[in-house]
From TrEMBL:
This is GTP cyclohydrolase 1. Residues 1-27, 48-70 are annotated as: Disordered. InterPro entries: GTP-CH-I_C/QueF, GTP-CH-I_N, GTP_CycHdrlase_I, GTP_CycHdrlase_I_CS, GTP_CycHdrlase_I_dom. Gene3D superfamilies: 1.10.286.10, 3.30.1130.10. One of its GO terms (molecular function) is zinc ion binding.
Length: 258
């Protein structure tokens, strides 16, 4: 059959097909042969804890964590100016008495809400890793933390449960809480928060398994958008025995619910 006898495709792409062809996601996946490869090209390719104790530092994290007192003051002033601009843009008067000091108050609050970026896990653990011949589950639950949603910069409240099965090493119980707080005090999404806590503890303890379960209430769903203040979001991440052994996983989930 000659080329001239082949059927001609005169199909014109629909608007929906054209949108799909131009989708940013299509460009992302074009660079990777599979979603697995795409995920491996994320922050999790990096060591969870760097040599200086920072964990998955962002682009400007080290600049903040190593700055001098003078540099910290300049950072605060820059943040105050930005917040003053926000107040103007929503139609308020930043010189009004009730708002006059709001930029400074909010700037300091924002730095506190995100102090997890500059914290070192090495300093946090502080020799609280002990050798102990204990090979049954250790569970700490009902750990309350707050995070800022990275999409809207409004809070979400977390109730966290952390379990692990030691491999001849145990961690001071308060350190489990501090690790959860450190990762919470960043711009976050709940799914990443769950995963980061689990992977970091797995790196610190080298245990037989780690499990993290988080139940959160998101103000971005309560105050805007769908406006469902009673909704809860639950995420989990399992490693080692918790992932491989269904009975171990069920024991963890039963203890969390009890």
């Amino acid at each position: 059959m000659s080329d001239s006898s082949l059927p001609v495709d005169n199909h014109t792409p629909s608007p929906a097909e054209s949108t799909m062809q131009k989708s940013p996601k299509a460009d992302i996946y074009a660079k990777h042969s599979s979603i697995t490869e795409y995920m491996s090209d994320s922050i999790y390719r990096n060591q969870p804890i760097q040599s200086d104790g920072l964990s998955w530092p962002a682009k400007n994290t080290r600049e903040r964590s190593t700055e001098s007192k003078e540099e910290a003051e300049l950072r605060l002033e820059k943040l105050k100016t930005a917040i003053c601009t926000v107040i103007e843009c929503i139609g308020e008067d930043p010189t009004r008495p009730g708002i006059l000091k709001t930029p400074e108050r909010y700037a300091k609050a924002m730095l506190f809400f995100t102090k997890g970026y500059e914290q070192s896990i090495h300093d946090m653990i502080n020799d609280a890793l002990f050798e102990e011949d204990h090979e049954e589950m250790v569970l700490v639950k009902d750990i309350s933390t707050f995070s800022l949603c990275e999409h809207h910069l409004v809070p979400f409240q977390n109730k966290i449960a952390i379990g692990y099965i030691p491999n001849r090493s145990v961690l001071g119980l308060s350190k489990l809480v501090r690790v959860a707080e450190m990762f919470s005090q960043r711009l976050q999404v709940q799914e990443r928060l769950t995963k980061q806590i689990a992977i970091a503890l797995n790196d610190i303890l080298k245990p037989q398994g780690v499990a993290v379960l988080i139940e959160s209430s998101h103000m971005c769903m309560a105050m805007r958008g769908v406006q469902k203040p009673e909704s809860k979001t639950i995420t989990s991440y399992m490693l080692g025995q918790f992932r491989d052994n269904i009975k171990t996983r069920e024991e963890f989930l039963t203890l969390v619910r009890s």
